[in-house]
Amino acid sequence: MTEPKLPIPLELDSDEQVILVGKRHWIELLQSSLVFLVIGFITAAVALFRAAGGTLLIMREGVSRPLTDPINVALLTLTIVLVALWARGEAKKDRRKDTLWRNPDVLYLLAILALGLAIWFRSIGGELIVIDPVYARAGDAINIVLSLITMFMLLAVAYLYNDWRNDVLIVTNKRVIYDEETMFIRHVRQQILIDDIQQVNVRADTYQATLFGYGKIIIRSFSPRTLEFDFAAKPREIEKAIMDQVRNLRRRQQPDLLRALIEDQVYGNKIPPQSAPALQARTQRFPIPALYPPNPEIRDDRIIWRPSWVYVLLQLFRPLTGFALTMFVAAVLVQFRLLDGVAVSLVVLIALLVFGVWGWWIRESLINDTYILTRNDIIDVDRRPLGPENTRRAQLSAIQNISFDVSFVERLLGLGTVVIETGGAAGGKFTFDHVPDPRGVQATINDYLTDFRKHEKERQLQDALALLKQYDQVQREHGEKMDRESFEKAVEELIGRSLNNRSANETTVDTLNGAVATQIDAHLRRVARNARRRAAIRALHERMRRRNSEQPS
Asked: Is residue 240 a part of any domain in this protein?
């Protein structure tokens, strides 16, 4: 099976594969652009009508038309229909207090009056619509305005088409990514790990959705966080692709991990540790390294991000502009001889002090606003100049969703904001503001999160395995379990004691046979009891597995 082509740039792990790329249905594009299409069509039609010589309400001298004229008959028939509908509405009228323009009586009267005037106008020689080259007005101001409106409507439709085309839902064997890009405004990306998906729902509860084959995808995780993709084309295929990956992961994850732990913990066959995921962080360096450290700064497996130096320069623009304006004013005052040399020196010194301290304060505030990622935690450190510090920390297990938000200007500058939503005791959001390459930051956090959760499951299974080993040891201490070595040793002791008593050979043989038979019988009973216990445990596991598989997806 060929891998679907990605419509957007996406960094994938070495073993990550794209399974499906879901897009929005064309009905969503039609709904969002319908108003612009209608306005564009009307303005274009009016402009062409006027360019071809079309005009309205022309009076012909010496011409009259009877009521039997076909057009007059059609207008009169329409007037009679409106009068009948009005009369029927009056009979069933609910005396409600409506506003003037919402009152149906007013609307009916206006329509009947307009039709009556049209009939009268045609009867005295007027024409409602005329196309005559004499009246062609292709290049007048009204037609130019109509043409400009039409072009603007077409540009709006093209913009909406580009926005519609860029909204995708990507399913890989590790995660589901929702990417929404609004041109010139912002770029938002959300994702949920396959391992965190609890259920996938498809909502197509309207006749239009059933007829045209679109729906709303709702992906729920084990946290309250959900991912929604509205107007999805072929929603059932998307649902099946996601749930297939969830089932495949569940199917191969637990047995492989249990087998590896049993080999390691019980039989001593050490499994070589898997290497940690490779870092995907691309370091941004300031032209003068002494003024701003590498971003991110990598120390072993500890990654430290700071606001981009481009953002820092933008923030320093204010004190630099203030200093430049002060120098300009001082130069003007010197030019008009309002300041002498001593005063100018004092002004320059004060300006350097004020704006220099201001710029230093901004730089120190931003350079010490750090976002730290470790193998176990995310840490947000906000340290102000001269000491005050605020630190927030949460375990990677508390992360519920990772997304990034990039506006049009931020995309041009190569920076953005990464938002990490957490639950549990940590609660709230961790916001990595104005970091370089937000897409790479999201990918790196996702790699660390995947690695953490994998090892977290290993730790849970190790605890369960240690509990089983302790249970086995207690069984042996209480004599509920006898291994082969203990059984053979007990038989040898019985045989030795019996053979030492040669004076009662027959009695010895009977005693030996009875003792051995008793031990064997007791051992067989223990084996049967343990077999029943294992069967009960297997039945319990099978019941739990069925219950999990019967959960709605």
From this structure: yes
Contact (CB, 8 A) for 24 and 212: no
**One domain, residues 433 and 335:** yes
**3 state SS of 307:** coil
Considering the domain architecture, whether residues 321 and 446 belong to the same structural domain is answered as: yes
**Within 13 Å, how many C-alpha atoms sit on residue 79's CB side?**
18
Same domain, 245 and 325: no
DSSP secondary structure letters along 455-506? HHHHHHHHHHHHHHHHHHHHHHHTTS---HHHHHHHHHHHHHHHHH-GGGHH
What is the length of the chain? Answer: 553
241 and 221: one domain? yes
Which one of 124, 157, 190 terminates a domain?
Answer: 157
**What does DSSP assign to residue 424?**
T
If one compares 429 and 497, the residue with the highest pLDDT of the two is: 429
Instruction: For 532-545, write each residue's pLDDT tens digit.
Output: 667 666 666 666 66
CA 528 to chain centre: 54
How confident is the model over 82-112, as pLDDT tens digits? 888 878 776 665 544 555 445 677 777 888 8
Assessment of whether the complete model's pTM goes beyond 0.70: no
Pairing of strands 389-395, 399-407: unpaired
* SS3 letters across 325-339: HHHHHHHHHHHCCCC
Domain of residue 121: give its range: 31-157
pLDDT tens column, 14-69: 778 889 999 999 999 999 999 999 999 999 998 898 888 877 777 777 777 777 78
Q: Are 548 and 519 in contact (CB under 8 A)?
A: no
Q: How far is 488 from 239, CA to CA, in rounded Å?
A: 59
- Evaluate whether residue 469 is within a structural domain: no
Number of domains in the chain: 4
385 upstream amide cis, omega within 30 of 0:
no
| CA–CA dist 104, 107 (Å, integer) | 5
Query: Which single residue is written with the structure tokens 């005050």?
Result: 388
CA distances from 164 to 180, 183, 231, 403 (A): 9, 10, 10, 20
Same domain as 405, residue 314? yes
Residue 24 DSSP code: B
* Strand, coil or helix: 167: coil
| pLDDT tens per residue across span 434-478 | 898 888 888 788 878 877 776 766 666 666 666 666 666 666 666
